[in-house]
Amino acid sequence: MRSSPLIFAAEALAAPEGTVFVDTRPRDDWAKATIPGATCLNVYDYFIAHSDERGIAAMVAGTRAAFRQLGLDRAPLVVFFEEQTGMQSPRGLWFHELCGFDGGRILDGGLAAWRAAGGGTAAGAGATGRIGDGDPAQAGAFRSELVAATEELLEPGAPELHVLDARRPAEWDGSYVHACCARAGRIPGADLLFYEDLLQDGRYRSPDEIRRIAAAAGFGPGQRIVTYCHRGARAATTLYGLRSAGFDNVAIHPGSWHEWAGEPDLPAVEGTGAFVHR
């Protein structure tokens, strides 16, 4: 079993010298008040063009360049945080791990937990960065087990693959669709586990609670799970919630529904008919 992806505020306050804190909130929030010395990295606004070999390589290359620019490829411990645990700090950790870097953690409870534990804040200053596409030829080696290309979701007769939709129930059943998506619905065979069900009061639920919630939605620790959402952020929150509960084989379909909906030849379904955890 992998080590926990989480670090708690008391541990973060005692983090060793050389630890890098990464604020994944909007730049204006970072500039007002952040963990002293934290850098700012925009991990949220990125959309992958295509979840194929070339598109994934471009994403990895751009991510690696952004991390190197901020020194995140050399730090022994990198702590990603936001105001409370939500969609941004897990996505930051996913990008970090995808590039093959070690020592990344999510500050569970975020900046709010840091303050509650007695941690101070300071105005953000210094270099900032954002995730974008790079030259696919510069991608280098990466952790391919953390990312699922479109082809994996289309492979027939793969009973070991379980697709998890981390969006809201209304997105899963097609009764709501984001304006930027070409159509409503879900990937065929996807079961719903709304990402917020793994959180409580701005933190991840306990491993026992997460295992119970996942089991009720049809997911178990021994499965190969591919999770998706609108564009990959909520999927990352889900991945690390599951990881904290002992699910070690979870990947993200990075284009998620935004990309899938824009490909008219890809299948989609709407309506209910499978278990929905609420």
UniProtKB/TrEMBL annotation:
SUPFAM superfamilies to which the protein is assigned, alphabetical: Rhodanese/Cell cycle control phosphatase
Keywords carried by this UniProt record: Plasmid, Repeat, Transferase
Limits of the Rhodanese domain: 15-123, 157-269
Keyword Transferase carried by entry: yes
Top-rank taxon: Bacteria
Molecular-function GO terms, alphabetical: transferase activity
Gene3D superfamilies documented for this protein: Rhodanese-like domain
Pfam families associated with the record: Rhodanese
InterPro entries: Rhodanese-like_dom (IPR001763), Rhodanese-like_dom_sf (IPR036873), Thiosulfate_sulfurtransferase (IPR051126)
Protein name (database record): Sulfurtransferase
Lineage: Bacteria, Pseudomonadati, Pseudomonadota, Alphaproteobacteria, Rhodobacterales
